[in-house]
Amino acid sequence: METAKRAALIEELCRESDLAERLPLVPPSATVRGLYFVNIERAVSSAGHGERYATLFPKRFGTVLWHPATDFLVQLAVGGALLAGPERVYEGMFELGRGNAIAFGESLLGRTLLRLLARDPKRLLRQGIAARRQSCSFGRWDLEFRAEREAVVTMVEEYLYIESFLMGAAKGTFDAINIPVRTEVVLRDRFNGQHILRW
């Protein structure tokens, strides 16, 4: 597909998101593991949009290699728009994040970790923070337990959508261990904020 046509299709799909404003603010040094890309491809393919997605993004990514976060953000927004429609792109991104966490929990590695962590939300959240450090080259997450069944994850310089994609991942993490959770997002700005999780 020619570059101009591809760019126009992506712009149309992402018209209801802040992608165009977000991308120039993300430093070139920000990278994510290829696993993130692979999970989007799987989710949109399962929903019947694989051919359209592959037309826009024919390149395949190795799961452990590092790739620009800006590339991921484009594919995330397009994936969200394909799943839920351009007018509900953030809902689609939420579902992508949730689906990633559930799929990991159902994988062999995920099931092994869940057994080791005894389905303890506190231990699981600590593990999630550690895993994030291995999958993104930017930002910082801090975890605090304010009460026995309440956690606060503070995110600094987090370029992936805190209020949709990452909130979906938080919800999916608890879904994977069958523990209901109430979630709240507090944003300072688009790259800094908190998840408040109560179970």
Description:
- It is a single chain.
- With about 200 residues, the protein is of the alpha+beta class.
- Helix content is about 50%, strand content about 20%.
- The strands form 2 sheets. The protein has a 4-stranded antiparallel sheet, covered by helices on one side. The protein has a two-stranded antiparallel ribbon with strand order 1-2.
- A hairpin with a 2-residue loop joins strand 5 (about 180-190) and strand 6 (about 190-199).
- Helix 6 packs parallel to helix 9 (about 165-175).
- The mean pLDDT is about 90.
Our Rg estimate from Cα atoms comes to 16 Å
Distance from first to last alpha carbon: 47 Å
Q: Residue share in helices?
A: 40-55%
Oligomeric state, counting identical vs distinct chains: single chain
Describe the structure using short key phrases.
single chain, two-stranded antiparallel sheet, 4-stranded antiparallel β-sheet, 6 strands, alpha+beta, 52% helix, 199 residues
Task: Describe the SSE topology.
Blueprint: H1 3-13, H2 19-22, E1 31-33, H3 35-46, H4 50-56, E2 66-68, H5 69-84, H6 89-106, H7 108-116, H8 121-135, E3 140-147, E4 150-156, H9 165-176, E5 182-189, E6 192-198
Antiparallel strand pairs: 1-2, 3-4, 4-6, 5-6
Short description:
52% of the residues lie in helices and 18% in strands. With 199 residues, the protein is an alpha+beta fold. Strand 5 and strand 6 form a beta hairpin.
